[in-house]
Amino acid sequence: MTNIPAAAGSAAKLKPLRPGMFNLPAQADMPVRLLGNRCRACGEPFFPKRHYCAACTSGDLEDTGFSETGKIDTFTVVRQQPPGGAIAPPYAIVRVKLDDGPTVQTIATNCDPEKLKIGDRVQLIAHRVMDDEAGATVVSFMAQPVKQG
Amino acid sequence: MREVVVLGAGLHRFGRFPDLSLQDLGREAIKNALADSGVPFKDIEVAYVGRVLAGMGAGLSVVSEMGQTGIPVINIEMACGSSTSAFREAYLSVANGVYDTALVVGFEKMQRGMLQISEQASYQTVMGLAVMPAAYALQAQRYMADHEATPEMFAQVSVKSHRNGALNPYAQYQKEVTIEEVLASRMIADPITLLQCSPTTDGAAAVVICAKEKAAKYSAARSMTVAGWATGSGKFESHDDGEGDAETNTGEVTRLANQAYARAGIGPEDVDVTQVHDAFSPGEVFTIEGLGLVKAGAGARAVWDGRTEITGDIPVNTDGGLLSRGHPIGATGAAMVTEIFRQLTGEAGPRQVKGGDAKVGLIHNAGIGGVNILVFKR
Ligand SMILES: [Zn+2]
Question: Residues B263-278: what's their mean pLDDT?
Fold first, then answer.
């Protein structure tokens, strides 16, 4: 667990939604690198990590971090809350082609989902999903448009 | 392998039937299929059952309603593709001479609301990423950026399906809708509105198959031949990003369709009538491209131009499809076989394509992670 420096009146602890998926920054809304792995035999990148390569079946994969930035390959705005979802609609699901790494799906955040466009550049950040029972802020990786206007 | 024919098929009407049990639904479908085929239940040597949400042993509890003849009852699950999987396994057992006569059954009773596609509390579920229509919506948005397609073209799939459903007494929805109504219905995941989502449905479907060399003794004067099949579980493609993709990935559909065409000795140009897995309206557009019925990028335009209507040159989902006939997930595949049987035997009534002269029927039925293709000839 990383403690946020006591600043800006917020002392809530940050907790990753799942351990080991990204490097936990000191504060919410800071950039994150996704932690995945890459097949040593064929070079295919995976996020989340796999034990065996989906492309060539090799079990020889090395852990790696992927780039924090990428661009939107496609997106949709979800307007009905799915079962078990912690995020209130409307929100955008984006498929992001990382500059160095695989294509990943996540939520767009800190933006107007109605103004997203295919091809927009995004930065991956750690953003709040919910609070847990102990009062910690549970964060996951989300995509923040680099600029939106 | 031996030639195998479909001798009969039948449904319990699709809809919402809170007062009926799985046994009630399944018994009606089996009774109708047996009557249609002329095969008495005591001659059925094996039953393959597609079902998803029902508990342990559900297949046996439904099939034994018809009599406890001691036959093997084999439960099969591949999500929304379960009963085409059951059909294929039944076909292979008869084709290989293990049995002469087999029953295929699919049934389901469903809860209202969105299907959940990930296991409880996966990170995708918590983050709201495990949204079934979103898989189709993401692909549809990309499709619109890459091709000259509009939300209206996807909405037209639903207009067409409901028009066909209105002609099908077994459909869940037997009412036409206008394109304005489709577009004005609640937005679920852009560009997919509520009327472009398949409903949750209760229903059952059954099919009787037989080795052709043993079929003459039954009263059914008509049949269709199982001509080709293919199945697969979603081959990895670079930069694939997981959930839902096997259903919306036209490359995967093409890979399997080509296997099925090769087995049947035909090409897509020979197909007269098709059933595709339109769980959401873009599914029809992507799938007719994947099947090679139209060129890549031409699917939305083909729908818009009416080519997939009953009166069109590539009629698709003549019974209303998942969108209007309904989608009781375990029963959907067997219902697709039922409609192709009606079409190829010239018994589809007001839904009949090609003046009753349809010779080749094609089925695409997808389940999470997998796709089944079936080809039939009159
Ligand atoms: Zn590999």
Answer: 98
